[in-house]
Specification:
about 350 residues, alpha/beta, Spore Coat Polysaccharide Biosynthesis Protein SpsA, Chain A, 2 domains, eight-stranded mixed β-sheet, 12 helices, about 50% helix, elongated, disordered N terminus, disordered C terminus
Length: about 350
């Protein structure tokens, strides 16, 4: 299938009227404190993309970095016409930086990947090949036995299992944000109004024709992963709560079960009282009461998380705020007025 034969929902005349030349491919890369990785990454990307002979753009989104990341992005954008940069006002998080890049991209196909070199650019031709065969989404499955610790692999595996069970959206083991999106599913995705973004789940939820490509995770050239245990836990909770109300329904059944236990305990207390043996039952009564209160507070915590999501949705704040842009054509994309909504 030829590159230009894919069905498009973007209006080409809109690009031309804004002075933008339509691209076949956009590469979106959110980065945070990756100053030492950006140059090697872009160098590898340019080498791989040159062999594809496609019009392309590389969009680097600086998610409030504290090192020289933006300086490196600016230098690359000034040296290479195809490199564009978006600087967010502060660190909004990986998913929101990715969202900013997706809104900025004008390609017929958009590839998203991380900036730490663990998503190898050399896999891109295989993603393009599957897209040309007619797949609207080309996802990837990471193979990382030698680059990721046992604990992180196991927690990731269990998260995907729990997420799939609670939401009904099947995410296989090894899913990542390294993928290709055709313009049709991308436009559908950009219509989402989720308060908490979890793009892996959202893309899978769309239901377009999907291919999966396996890849070996590359090693970081410099720096360390920004996802510590606390960030991963918050990310997992937001993903599940944003996609499912099943935890609330499970809470109802837990409440019914514990209410049944409390009723049984009440019957036991009445029987013991009638037999004049109230003291021996004191320990069990206290134990059950403590259990009930513990479960109650857990359920209140679950409800509180959902209320917090509702509160943030009602606030209506933008997902991100753009502080600066660099690169050809960025001045006519109206980032400050449109992309932060």
């Amino acid at each position: 299938m030829a590159i230009g034969s894919k069905t498009e929902m973007h209006n080409k005349s809109n690009y031309e009227s804004d002075g933008l030349q339509e691209k076949s491919l956009s590469i979106v890369i959110p980065v945070f404190d990756e100053a030492d990785n950006i140059d090697p990454l872009v160098k590898r990307l340019v080498r791989v993309l040159a062999d594809l002979d496609l019009p392309y753009e590389i969009i680097l989104v600086d998610d409030g970095s504290r090192d020289g990341t933006w300086t490196r992005i600016t230098a690359l954008a000034n040296d290479i016409d195809s490199v564009l940069g978006v600087k967010l006002a502060r660190n909004f998080g990986h998913q929101y930086a990715l969202w900013a890049g997706l809104k900025c991209a004008i390609g017929k196909a958009v590839i998203t990947m991380d900036g730490d070199l663990q998503h190898p650019p050399e896999v891109i031709p295989e993603l393009i090949d599957n897209w040309q065969k007619g797949f609207d989404i080309v996802s990837t499955k990471r193979i990382d036995e030698n680059t990721t610790g046992f604990f992180k692999r196991q927690t990731s595996k269990q998260f995907y299992r729990v997420f799939s069970y609670l939401t009904g959206v099947n995410l296989g083991e090894g899913a990542s944000d390294f993928r290709l999106l055709d313009r049709r599913p991308l436009n559908a995705l950009l219509g989402f109004r989720d308060t908490e973004l979890f793009l892996r789940g959202a893309v899978q939820w769309l239901g377009f024709r999907n291919a999966i490509v396996s890849y070996n995770v590359g090693r970081r050239l410099a720096g360390e992963s920004k996802y510590d245990m606390n960030r991963m836990l918050r990310f997992a909770i937001s993903a599940i709560v944003g996609f499912s109300t099943k935890p609330l329904r499970i809470g109802i059944w837990i409440g019914l079960a514990t209410a049944s236990l409390a009723f049984i305990e009440l019957i036991y207390i009445v029987i013991q009282y009638s037999l004049g043996k109230t003291v021996p039952g004191w320990a069990s009564a206290v134990g059950v009461t403590s259990l009930l209160f513990g479960i109650l507070f857990v359920l209140l915590g679950i409800i509180g998380i959902y209320l917090a999501h509702i509160h943030r949705a009602l606030q209506g704040r933008p997902h991100f705020i753009v502080a600066a842009t660099v690169g050809q054509g960025m001045d006519v994309r109206k980032l400050d007025n449109e992309l932060s909504k």
